[in-house]
Amino acid sequence: MESKVETETFLGYCFDAEGRYPSPVSLHGIEQAVGYFKLQMPLHPRVMITDQRDYCVLEAQNGKITFPPARKDT
């Protein structure tokens, strides 16, 4: 049985330098969402992946992941 994350639909946004973006790309499952994110990250100033509720689950700015924040081991 597939988990909810594997079958969930995500949206991928690619922003230009002025903060504009075209219609989002529909992504099916976490693997497709992460693959799209990695592919677009070096090409756009900002890339964001949202879940079905429009919450940000991945974000990169200028080629660096900004969300989720880096985990600090204590």
Could you characterize the architecture of this molecule?
This protein is of the alpha+beta class. The protein has one domain. 20% of the residues lie in helices and 35% in strands. The chain contains 2 helices and 5 strands, in the order αββαβββ. A 5-stranded antiparallel beta sheet has the order 2-1-3-4-5. Strand 3 and strand 4 form a beta hairpin. The longest helix is centred in the middle third of the chain and has 11 residues, at 30-40. The chain is globular, with a radius of gyration of 13 Å. The termini are far apart.
What order do the helices and strands follow?
HEEHEEE
Task: Give the helix proportion (percent range).
Answer: 10-25%
Q: Return the domain count.
A: 1
Strand order, main sheet: write it out. 2-1-3-4-5
Radius of gyration: 13 Å
Q: What's the tally of helices?
A: 2
Low-confidence stretches: none
Distance between the termini: 36 Å
Topology (elements, then pairings):
Elements: H1 4-7, E1 9-15, E2 25-28, H2 30-40, E3 46-50, E4 56-61, E5 64-67
Antiparallel strand pairs: 1-2, 1-3, 3-4, 4-5
Summarize the structure.
This protein is 20% helix and 35% strand. The protein has 74 residues and is an alpha+beta fold. It has a 5-stranded antiparallel sheet.
Key terms for this structure?
single chain, 20% helix, 35% strand, 74 residues, globular, alpha+beta, five-stranded antiparallel beta sheet
